[in-house]
Amino acid sequence: MANQLEEVARALVAEGKGILAADESTPTIKKRFDSIGVESTEENRRAYRELLFTTPDAEHHISGVILFDETTRQTTRDGTPFIQLLKSKGIIPGIKVDAGAKPLALAPGEKVTEGLDGLRQRLVEYRAIGCGFAKWRAVIAIDEARGLPSDYCLEVNAHALARYAALAIEGGLVPIVEPEVLMDGPHSIEVCERVTERALRRVFACLAEQRVPLEQILLKPNMVISGSDCPQQAGPEEVAAATVRCFRRVVPAAVPGIVFLSGGQSDVQATENLNAINRLYPDLPWQMSFSYGRALQAPALKAWLGRQANAAAAQRAYYKRASLNGAARYGTYTAEMEAA
Question: What are the domain boundaries of the chain?
Fold first, then answer.
C-alpha cells in the first residue's frame, strides 16, 4: 500500500501536469453560477462538470480532479459515471472530505475545519468507488490589528489536518494537506510570509506526531503573496522568491510535490506566479505544481453561460488555461501565449 500511495502522489505531480479542483460545495458553486445568471440545480451542476471532464486532451495537462460528494455519484448524459470517465482518460479522481470551516470557539474571527467524525468510514467508501486521493482544507485569516492568526487557531487546524492525513493513508488514499493562509486584507507580502511559515511549521510538526509518512502526501498551500487590499502588490519574481524562501525553511524534502491553490488570484496571475517559481527555481526538491479551481474554470464559466450550444467554446477556454498552466510547470509560459 505504501508504494501504491507514493506512486499516486508522484503521478498527481507528473511533469507538465496539475490538478483541477472541481470540489466546490453546493453554496460555493451557487455563487459561481449566480455570477453568470445560471440556476444552481443538480442537472446544471452535472452538465457543467461533464463539460469540464469531457474536454478533449485535457489529460495532457490535468493529472487529477478533486470532486465534491455529489459529483462522485453523477454520470454523463450517456450514463457513464464521472469517476469511470476520468479514469478512462488517465486522470485520477479525488474527493474533498472535510465538512467546511466553522467558527472556532472562543476565537472571534477565526475558523476551524470540521469533518473528522465518521471520516474513516467515508474514506473506505470513496476508495471503493474509485477515488485515489482526498483533500482537506484549513483556512487561516490574517488580521494584524487583532493579532490574528492566533497560535490556538494554527494548532487546532494543524492537528485536524494531521488527523485527516493519517486516516486517509490508513484508508488507502493519498491525502492532499491544504492549510490556506487567506489573501484577504491589506497585509504585505512580508506578513504573509511570516504567517505562512508559522502555519506550515505547525502542520509538519503535527504530521510527524500523527506518524504520517510524508512521501505519501501532497501539500496544497497558498503562495506567499501580498494581501488583496495591500497598496503594494508584489510581482511574480518577488512572489516566487518569498514562496521558495519560506518553503525551504519548513517543508521537508520527502514531500513529493506542492500543488498550489490559486486562492483568489486571477487566472493569469496564478499562471504567472507558478511560472516564475518554476523558471527561477528549477532544482527544488519538490515538484511545484497547481491545484486550481477558479483560476482554471473562470474563463470556461464565462463562455458557457449555462447553454449547451456554448459547451465547445467553454471547453476550449478550459483547455487553454490547463495548457498554459502546464507550460508554467516547466517555466516556459509567456504572456504572448494568452493571445494565441
Answer: 2-329
